[in-house]
Each structure stands twice: as C-alpha cells, then as structure tokens.
C-alpha cells in the first residue's frame, strides 16, 4: 500500500515561516556587520585624534628645539597617511549601512581633517616649507567629483608627502566646515582650494601640476 | 535604495518557492521512495517516432527489446521521412523481432508521427519514446502501477542523462537531476505540465478522448499534458522509473533545443490560458503555470540588475585604473568587511547556498553522486552561470514568440 501524499497547503505557511526566519537571521547578521563597522571606524578616529594630541604635545615641547622642523615633518607625514587611510575607509563604507547612521563618523573625520589642515598650514609658515595643501569639496554620486577624487589620488601617489589632500563633503552640516565653505566661497562641487586659492569645477591632472608648481 | 528592496524581494520570493518544494519533499519522503506495484498488466504498445536517427535507433530498440513486461509489447517505429539509414536499421532489428513494426511517412513532424503510430497501436497503454532515448528493463513495473487510479491518463518516468562528458552536458545533467525531483514533487501536488518525450506512458482511452497529439505544436509533450489535465485526466510521475536521453553537446544545439522548448511553453501557456489562476485546476493553475512565466521574468530582472551594476562597476574600475593606477595590496579582514555591501552580498550568498542545498538534496534523492554525474566544477559552473544562460535564451524565445518569427523543430 503506497502512502498518500501530504497536502501542500500547509507547506505554503511553513515556507513563509522559514523564509521569515532565514531573512530575520540575514538582517541580524547585517545589523551585526553595521555595528562592527561603526565600532571599527570609531576606534580608528579615536586613535587618529590621540595621535594628533601626541603631535600637538610634542610640538609644544619641541617649540624651541633646533630640529623642530625635521621632527615635525616626520610626525606630519604619519598623520597624513592616517588621514588618507581614514578617508579610504569611510569612502569604502559609502552608503552601505542600513541599520546605523554613519553621519557622526563623517563629522568627526571632517573635523579631524580641518584640525590637521590648520596644523599643516602653521607648520608651513613656521618652517617655510612648500608642502601643497589641497582642500577637496565633493558630492556623493557626482561623476565629476568621482573623477576629481581619482585625479587627486594619482597626484598623491606621485608627490607623496609634498602634497596633503583634505576631502570634504560639500554642504555637509558641520558649522566649522560651513565656515570654511563660506570663507572660500565654495558654491559647487567639485571645488578645490589649492594653497588657499579656490578652483571651482573639475581640474585636470596637468592643470593641477601647473598650479602646484 | 529601490534596487536593494527589489533584490531582497526577489530573493525572498525565489527562496520561498524553493523552501516550499523542499518542505513538500521532506514531508513526503516516504511517498517519494515508494513504488506503486501494478494490480494487473494491461497490453502495451510503444511508439517511437524517428527522424534521421540512424545512430541511436538501435540502442533505443535494444533497450525496448530487453523491457521486462509479462505481455510482449507492440513496438511501432514511425520513420518520419528520414533521409539517413534509420528505416534500414529498424528493418534489420525487426527481422529478428516480430513485435517491431515500421511505419514510414513523409516528414510531417513529431506530433504527426505519434498520431500515425497511435492509429496502429492496439495496447491499452501506449508508451511514447524518443529514438535517442533508452530505458531500464524494469521501467514499466512502477509506471503501470500509476494507472491503478482510473482517472490517471499518463504516467511519466524520471529522465536522466547518459554519461555526460563535457561541461555543458554536466551542467544540463544537474538541471535534469533537479527536474526529476521536481517532477516527482509535481506528481504529489498535481502540478505536472509535461509528459517528456523521452519516455511517457498514456492510457490509450485518454489519448483518444483528447483527440491525440497536436501536430502543429512545438512541444507536443507539453501540449498533450495540459490538454489531458484540462479535460480532467491526471498525470503521475513514477517514483522509481528512469529513462535516459541524449543531451545537446554544443551551445548551438542547446540554444536551438531551448528556443523550441520555451517557445512551446509560452505558446501552450497562451493556448491553455483559461487554466491560469483557475482554482478548478488546483496548484497547476494557481501556482505552477503562472510560475512558469513569472519566474523567468524575475530571473531576468536580476540579470538586468547585474548587467547594469556590472557595467557601472566596470566603468568606474576602468576609470580608476586609467587615472589612479592599480593597487596590488590585499586589504585586511576588517577593511574587506568595511567594503562588503551586505545588502547585495547576503541575498546572493543565500541564493547560492540554497541552490547548492537543492542540488545536493536532489542528487541524494535521485541516488546520483555529484562527483560522478556532474563533477564539482560542473556543479559550481551550473550554480553560477547555467540559469543565467538559460534565462537569456528564455528571453530570446519570449521575443521570438511575440514577434511570431519562424518556428523550427
């Protein structure tokens, strides 16, 4: 005697329950990943800020030292690499977060960049160094900003520690950043402030090299 | 964000359908392995339509000759205008076996050949068999058992592949193994919509009741299945019987075969559109037939998204390489996780894992070893590429059907 097949109707409900569990587990995994990423970047930013504190302390201590400029140069090079790595990390995170908001990370990062930029400017003045500083104002999802970013990466690769790039999201809601944007008259993206002078729109690699001299 | 929602909805739906069938399979495991013993052995006729099958007809007839059946079956080979030595080969074998008859006719297509054989068939049961197929000697044991219920009009066997050697045939073998399990489940849920030409058995009264095979249909094996069910006949799939078929060995042959199949599917779905969403036809009308159309569209949406995202990614990567150059450093685990877009990676991983589970389960149920029948590389290639290729062909078939372009058998 062959057993009679069991009805498929209940399988519809059971399948729905199974899918709810599978997707629930998937979303939980995603939330865990989001949380991990926020923690990781937050720790990186805290470390970067501690390094800046260390720099400022050393700067105060070495103020009258005869090797001040040489020592500060090495410090700044390390901080520059740190800011570059953080920028890459935040850009890699992009808009991939679902359960957590990464805006506060961006804000901390931009403030960190502004602080570092000011330190570099004071170092340039005091040590009479010709390091090129570039403030890059971009917008997400903008092709010209994307291409400008690639050009700047290429410039950084070529000139290494002789150029320092600080990238900011145009129109980001941070008073210190708004102040800089207003001060330099940043109205669109991409915009570059190269050694204190504004260049609106895309700037090619060749032109950038000419401007930097 | 819209694309994320779309990907998750599509994945949920795809997995839902798969999980549904897995649950049906698990709940009916005992039935899936049961063999329906025949109460009696009705007389049997076997019709073999053949067109230029000189190379395969002898192995087909040899397997029919070795068929274990209490009554000697009537074997009718219908030579449908072959221009090779098919008829000569049949006559050579028939000389030693008086139950083999050869009918010759000008080329009129498979449906017409089957009807010609049907007119000569005397058996209560009529089996149809492709000339490039072979069968196991005991295939009829469980197939005859399926006819113990009076409203069963047809019984079908699992169709497996004979010795796949190339990657393309190995991938098709994976598809056939999954299809075999799917058809067994279809038998339990009344959702079978095809009586494969490789080997299917019909109640002659049922064939007579529905008027025989459609002679102008691209896939007469699907058409007859739908016609039988539209007139209240049921189709059963034997849980143990197996027939073996030859597979297309080149991409061109596979393309031609699938264009014919999918055009046939679309045309027959249109022909029997009154069955769609018709509760009178149970799960076949409410679930299976709509799924046959909906699923390829879902797959195509996914493919289209992959193409668009892939193109954007390729463009951005090319731009990055041309301007900023290549970076050869491997990221740390933390940084790799930062860049991982789980909104897309997770649905993809779930679909892939689920596909692997379905393939493994199907192989287990069909008593096939992955390493032997498909190969690990074949299984991987199947999971990663096969349905994409097949869905693209389906898409072409869809447009050919809409454009009513020339039909080829």
Key attributes of the depicted protein:
heterodimer; A: 213 residues; alpha+beta; 4-stranded mixed β-sheet; 6 helices; 4 strands; 65% helix; B: 409 residues; alpha/beta; 8-stranded mixed β-sheet; elongated
Detailed description of the structure:
The complex is a heterodimer of chains A (213) and B (409). Chain A has 213 residues and is α+β, with helices and mostly antiparallel strands. Chain A has six helices and four strands, in the order H-H-H-E-H-E-H-E-E-H. Chain A has a four-stranded mixed sheet, sandwiched between helices. The longest helix of chain A has 53 residues. The radius of gyration of chain A is 24 Å and the shape is elongated. Chain B has an eight-stranded mixed sheet, sandwiched between helices. The mean pLDDT of chain B is 89. The interface between A and B is large, with 36 and 37 residues.
Question: Could you give the order of strands across the largest sheet of chain A?
Answer: 2-1-3-4
Largest sheet of chain A: 4 strands, mixed
The counted number of beta strands of chain A is 4
Sheet with the most strands: spatial strand order of chain B: 3-2-1-4-7-6-8-5
Helix content of chain B: 55-70%
Largest sheet geometry of chain B: 8 strands, mixed
Could you give the order of the helices and strands of chain B?
HHEHEHEHEEHEHEHHEHHHHHH
* Low-confidence runs of chain A: none
- Structural class of chain B, by secondary structure, is alpha/beta
Assembly annotation? heterodimer
Task: List how many beta strands of chain B DSSP finds.
Answer: 8
Distance between the termini of chain B: 45 Å
Give the fraction of residues assigned to helices of chain A.
55-70%
Specify Rg of chain A, calculated over alpha carbons.
24 Å
* Low-pLDDT stretches of chain B: none
Most extensive chain-chain interface? A-B, 36 and 37 residues
Q: Strand-and-helix sequence of chain A, N→C?
A: HHHEHEHEEH
The number of helical elements of chain A comes to 6
Distance between the termini of chain A: 93 Å
Shape of chain B: elongated
